[in-house]
Amino acid sequence: MKTNYVLIDYENVQPDAMTVLNEEHFKVIVFVGANQAKVSFDVASALQQMGERAEYVRISGNGSNALDFHIAFYIGQLAARESDAYFHIVSKDTGFDPLVQHLKTRKILACRSKDVTEIPIVKAANSKTPSDRLAVVIADLQRRGSAKPRTVKTLGSTINSIFQKQLSEPDLNGLLATLEQKGVIVTTGTKVSYSLPT
User: Which of 8, 134, 183, 187 would staple 90 via disulfide (CB 3.0–4.6 Å)?
Assistant: First the structure.
């Protein structure tokens, strides 16, 4: 499984559910503001359990968007080394959205989530019911913009990847059938087109 870097804007978000990131495919970097004196015990404890897969970066200097520029720099550095990694920015700051869009145009996988529990791969892992899974798939397809799969086979592989290849064949086929029944996808032979809800 590809590496998922989680870059947390700790000035903006102080997540509670950090233990959901204690998986081998996650690497976590918490960016702490120059004037922030401490992090919560829960965050420190969760990061300590992750060992070398987690680190803090205390930014130097103050100023508007100082921490944001640090996150952008780290993503650039990491993407140059690991172009196939996925980058998750955890922040409520919508100012990251143009950066995420730019990364996507460069074929770098990235998204911004408001909390660690909203990270797509975490949300997918925690979705158990068919309606939860369907919502995760639709949200993923919406995020892809024009880069959605164009064949039924590729769409099936994409959905299976969202769920870390843990779906059974009947579950996967059920999701595809439900997407078609709800009019979200239209299949013509091996091709697929979309009518995603807004």
Answer: 8
Helix or strand holding residue 124 (H, E): helix 120-126
Q: Burial-class residue 68 by CB neighbours within 10 Å (0-12, 13-18, 19+).
A: buried
The pLDDT tens digits for 6-54 are 999 999 998 888 888 988 899 999 999 988 888 888 888 999 999 999 9
CA distance 42 to 136: 27
Residues 6+ apart with CB under 8 A from 156: 172, 176
Tell me the C-alpha distance between 196 and 125, whole Å.
Answer: 22
User: What is the rounded distance in angstroms from the CA atom of residue 72 to the CA atom of residue 70?
Assistant: 5
Answer whether 194's CB lies under 8 Å from 176's CB.
no
